[in-house]
Amino acid sequence: MAEVIIMPKLGFNMDEGELVSWHKKAGDPIAKGELFFEINTDKTTMPIEATSDGVVLKILVEEGETVEVFTPVAVVGQEGEDPDAVLAQGVATASLDGRVDESSADGKAEENKKEPQSEAQCQSGVSETDIKDLKLTPKARKLILDESLDPVSIAKITGTGYQGGITAKDIKASPLARKLAEKSGVDLLAVEGTGVNGKIMKEDVKRAAEHQAYTEDTSEKKVLSAVPYKGVRKIIGDKLAESKFTAPHLYFTDAVDTTNMTAFRKEMNQVSERKITVSDLLVYAAGKALVKFPGINTSLVDGNIVTYESTNIGVAVAGDNGLVVPVIKNVQEKSLTKVSEENRDLVDRAKEGHLKPEEYTGGTFSISNLGMFGIDNFTAIINPPEAAILSVSSVRKTPVVVEKDGEDKIEIRPMMNIQLSVDHRLIDGLLAAQFVGYMKELLENPLKILM
């Protein structure tokens, strides 16, 4: 029997994926284990293999298109089978690792019917039974139940999803916003809502219409390029915006004299099989500092302040698919050489977009180093759900006051600014200051990093 291949959900926070490239076309035979297509998740490119033999009967999503998870992207079956008939029946059998089929989803829906309804659902009478006849994406179904939305009003919405299915984006628009969007030709899928829970309001559509009219007038501006704000760039932007406007950021800056660190690296690299970089020393020093000050190594999870024993340190990398933060796990248990080896491997593959989801998730602290680009100072935004991030700037020869033989003297020293951004809900100023002071102590006396 033919199978409907859907966009897989490869991570807890993955709501959509971009189909980067097809390795098979309609009519091609395909064997189990063969590379079928590649997708961009939130941070990396993932190859998807076929799990059964057959023929590619139909391709539903174009290369470069971004769709919600569980959206049908192709149909695979035996030669002569009718893919449209399969799609019409709504068959979505799981065929790739990580997929969820409709039959299991329906089973879960039946189970949910037996479970006690939430207070909001009881008040409005909204249940799975009330919306069972609506053609909804999983995300839209969850939104209706979570927010106790009126099924009668939802039924009047013209869906923009696959085969007219109603998506969460369709629902997250007020009736006036939908009418105005139709009148002004604004695509609701491209509008960011400012209402409760991201709902698109009339004013959001008006702004989008004005922007659209403005950008269409290119008589006085030469446009080099225009690409949709979506995919990885949008995911990163949404995540950082949420961090910036949810977590009250507080910043702590100090300057580090790198004289001893430079000499230490030179001496280490004369005997080490692997070249030790500044990034390696930063990660290793941060691991040691997080063990000493575990209050920095925290997250806010479901209303609880969780303090971690593991020091999982992410290193921000600008790759082909945007910013990605590969994570070196349990730094506190590893040697400097091992950290250096993992760091180099993860960074190289991050730049190529070949990281696995587990290699850029699970961080407890992050480092963003722009020193190699000559940046004198910058402020980093915390990478949620972490509570702190360290930004590191370039080394510059700077006149500083040093004490020698009881006298103050001015000398030229190679100085490097470090700045710690913390979530002030979880981390107090004194703790942050102590952490920065200890990082400075370790970097200026690098032998302590190994002790």
Summarize the structure.
This protein is an alpha+beta fold and 451 residues long. The protein has helices spanning 83-89, 102-114, 119-124, 128-131, 138-147, 151-155, 168-171, 175-184, 202-216, 231-246, 259-271, 278-292, 336-352, 429-444, 447-450, and strands at 3-6, 16-22, 29-30, 35-40, 45-49, 54-59, 66-68, 72-77, 249-257, 298-301, 304-307, 313-315, 317-319, 322-324, 327-328, 365-369, 388-404, 407-423. A 6-stranded mixed sheet has the order 9-18-17-16-12-15. It has a 4-stranded antiparallel sheet with strand order 1-8-6-3, covered by helices on one side. A 4-stranded antiparallel sheet has the order 5-4-2-7, with no helix packed on it.
Give a structural overview.
Belongs to the 2-oxoacid dehydrogenase family. Its cofactor is (R)-lipoate. Its EC number is 2.3.1.-. It holds the Pfam family E3_binding. The protein is α+β, with helices and mostly antiparallel strands and 451 residues long. It has 3 domains: 98 residues, RNA polymerase II/Efflux pump adaptor protein, barrel-sandwich hybrid domain (OB fold (Dihydrolipoamide Acetyltransferase, E2P)); 100 residues, no CATH class; 218 residues, Chloramphenicol Acetyltransferase. The protein is 34% helix and 24% strand. The protein has a 6-stranded mixed sheet. The protein has a 4-stranded antiparallel sheet with strand order 1-8-6-3, covered by helices on one side. β13 and β14 form a beta hairpin. α8 runs parallel beside α9 and α12 packs across α13. The longest helix is centred in the C-terminal third of the chain and has 17 residues. It is globular, with a radius of gyration of 26 Å. The termini are far apart.
